[in-house]
Amino acid sequence: MSLLPPGIGRVEIVGQCTDSIKPEDILFADGVSRHLLGTPPNFQLGNAAALVEGYHHGSTAVIDSIKDRHWVVEGNVAWINYTGFLKCNPTTPGFYVGERITVTRGLIHEILIAGVVIPPGVCPAP
Asked: What's the pTM value of the predicted model, to 2 decimals?
């Protein structure tokens, strides 16, 4: 039994998460929480707009590309592990991440960042 609403399936959610080029196209719930493992979620109205703004001008604006995505999806929960490449060194992996994405009523409700590994010396300081 799927916990997603009728007409929204796993393929659509995974597809929109991986294929969206512009953060504005990602289907975030307005009160989406993006937080680290071990910290409580922070579901507040307006979080979606702040998250999109962060993709353009915040700490995630330094990301050049995401590659090597590995998905596990069951019901309304998806785990993704991926490799990120930074604009300062787009040919060398800049970080590795594992995230759990929870979907509620067809929208991304929570992004739990389970771990981030940053190799040393990817973007040396000037």
From this structure: 0.80
